[in-house]
Amino acid sequence: MNENNNTGKWTAKRIAAIIGIVILVGMYVALLVLAFLFPANSFEIFITAVGGTVGVTILIWLMIWVIGLFTGRHTIASLDAMTSDQDHDKYGNAYPRKPSGHIDTIIFDIGNVLVDFSWRQMLVDKGVPEELVEKVGDATVRTDIWNEFDRGNMSHEEIVGKLCDNSPELAEYIHKGFDDFTGIVKLRSTSIPLIEGLKKAHYRILVLSNYSKSAVDNNKNEMVFLDYVDGGILSYKDHVIKPDREIYELLIKRYDLVPDKCVFIDDTEKNVAGAKNAGIKAIHYQSLEQMMDELKELGIKRI
């Protein structure tokens, strides 16, 4: 997951400002020396200093304007200087200012939102008979023990062992299906374009998901969307899971969020309720179209 780091850079604006300061200081020092050498001409020297100050200021303005013209970036010297503090598109058009209280952060669950939780297909692909898939599901993904994968306090092998102990008649198929999690998720083709579109519209994108280390480690290609988001929490790393209030509060604290300026999207109603209890706006995900409609109702549009 990407973390944004702001480092000092020698920007064109900064270079132009330094050049201007050097010119002005040099001019003032030179004129001060001349005033001492030629006191009878001190008035003329003063007028020269005033004229030079105005001239250098105009020169700096022109330099910044030319730099902005060639780089396509808006500056204080742009003709629409009142929008110089706003972001602009590649054509130089300022994005509309967002009203006070606007959403600035969108938080996504992962499973069945950005990826498909495809445990059934994984079991079939690993040789579990189709007529046993639902029984194996009842003994694994639909149990409370399954949450321990997401909580991250026990090893993968320990959890699989407990699942087998609880359903010994299915132990062979539990091992076959879940000794590793390769194939348990499939990346949705819409996810990366969705994230990119929202980021281009200047929203911060985070994830908040009950997720296991094995699901991440065994599905690197399916998890590539994590390279596009601005951060977030995967439950196994912090040993807290949804819908416990602690995980929402941890996200808020870690990323210095204003809850009322955030919206959380999850396919599970109890997790949506947990976000709302923490003061975060939330959407119960049912389809991409429905989610986008509800985001638009909140004033959110992707580019």
Quickly describe the structure.
47% of the residues lie in helices and 9% in strands.
Can you walk through the features of this model?
Helix 9 (213-217) links the parallel strand 4 (204-209) and strand 5 (232-234). Helix 1 (12-37) packs antiparallel against helix 2 (42-71). Helix content is 47%, strand content 9%. It folds into 3 domains: 12-83; 105-115 and 184-297, HAD superfamily/HAD-like (Rossmann fold); 134-178, no CATH class. The chain has helices spanning 12-37, 42-71, 119-125, 133-139, 147-151, 156-166, 171-178, 191-200, 213-217, 235-238, 245-254, 269-277, 288-297; strands at 105-108, 115-117, 185-187, 204-209, 232-234, 262-266, 281-284. The chain is α/β, with parallel strands linked by helices and 303 residues long. The protein has a 5-stranded parallel beta sheet with strand order 5-4-1-6-7, sandwiched between helices. The radius of gyration is 29 Å and the shape is elongated. The chain crosses the membrane at residues 15-39, 45-70. InterPro entries: HAD-like_sf, HAD-SF_hydro_IA, HAD_sf, PGP-like_dom2. It holds the Pfam family Hydrolase. One of its GO terms (molecular function) is hydrolase activity.
